[in-house]
Amino acid sequence: MPTKAHHEANRLSWNEGTKAHNSHKGDQAAYFRAGGNTLFPEESRLLGDISGETLLHLQCNSGQDSLSIARHLGGIVTGVDISDEAIRFARQLSRDSGIKASFVRADVYDFFASASERYDVVFSSYGVLCWLSDLAAWGRGVAGCLKPGVRFALVDFHPAFIMFDGEWQLKHDYMGGVPCEYESGVGDYVAWTGAAAEIDSLLPGIRDFRNPFQGVEYQWGIAEVATALLNADLSLSHLAEYNYCNGFKPMSDMVDLGGRQYAMPARLPQNFPLMFSLIAERKR
User: Fold this and answer.
1) pTM for the predicted model, two decimal places
2) Tens digits of per-residue pLDDT, 209-248?
3) Where are the extended beta strands (E) located within 46-200?
4) What Å distances lie between residue 150 and 127, 145, 147, CA to CA?
């Protein structure tokens, strides 16, 4: 299947998955009107106070983090996502919550090709790299959206963590970007993890979700990610690994640290990377 067909499959799969995810979260607009914030400390620290700065949020999903950035960090936010359903929801959530942000429905590569504006900050987080079919083009696209002297911030799940299946058995490649097709498509990970920032307990929502559309993922190693940015003439100013991960609990025996953070089970090595972050800066 050619790459464009992969992207289209993922768009359809994310449309259905997004409906399931948001069905569990209740009145999210009320959560935001009450001052709610879906950001974890790691991305808040990476971004800092960006009051009055323009921020491009790539692969923004349904806009919850985008609106949190706008409300709590002061950014003038534009979110981009491939999913029609995610962008429809994000725009409605922005209106209903009273938090101003702009949202664009686009494949990230199409967005890069047509983008004319440059931003003070570019940001992406949690489960984004695995949907990128061309890492070199992604690096160039990120660089092309940055003003000189400003930064790209990324936090994502560690590729070493993603190598495991649900039983902690090695199953997937660490690197190489080889497409892996999943007939099950985008799953209802909100129901799997049993927690969401927007509410204290999940609503039943859509039950026993089965996605009718397959998904296609790509596994990239840390060196490949860094090299894509370095080859796009960006410089790395921060790279960190974490032995816990935020908001994602794919294995039932992971240790709940509180605050929607999870660590390795006690029977396995503890200093194993589950998440990483980086900052890449465009030279002046």
Assistant:
1) 0.96
2) 999 999 999 999 999 999 999 999 999 999 999 999 999 9
3) 54-58, 76-81, 102-105, 119-125, 146-157, 179-182
4) 24, 10, 6
The band of 2, judged by pLDDT with boundaries at 50, 70 and 90, is low
Q: What angle do CA 180, 9, 102 make, to 5 degrees?
A: 115
What Cα–Cα distance (Å) separates residue 214 from each residue in 5, 81, 184? 11, 18, 6
Strand partners, 238: 279
Tokens of residue 90, six digits: 């994000």
104 token code pair:
């664009």
Angular region, 129: left φ>0, alpha ψ -120 to 50, beta rest: alpha
Task: Lowest mean pLDDT of 35-39, 82-86, 103-107, 193-197, name the range.
Answer: 193-197
In tens, the pLDDT along 75-110 reads 999 999 999 999 999 999 999 999 999 999 999 999
Return the structure tokens found at 246: 């935020």
| C-alpha to C-alpha distance for 159 and 273, rounded to whole angstroms | 9
Quick one: which H or E segment has residue 65?
helix 64-68
What is the SS3 assignment for 72-110?
HHCCEEEEEECCHHHHHHHHHHHHHHCCCCEEEECCHHH
Instruction: Look up residue 208 and give its two tokens.
Output: 């026993």
The tokens describing 35, both together, are: 């001052």
Compute the distance between CA of residue 247 and CA of residue 197 in angstroms, rounded to an integer.
Answer: 8
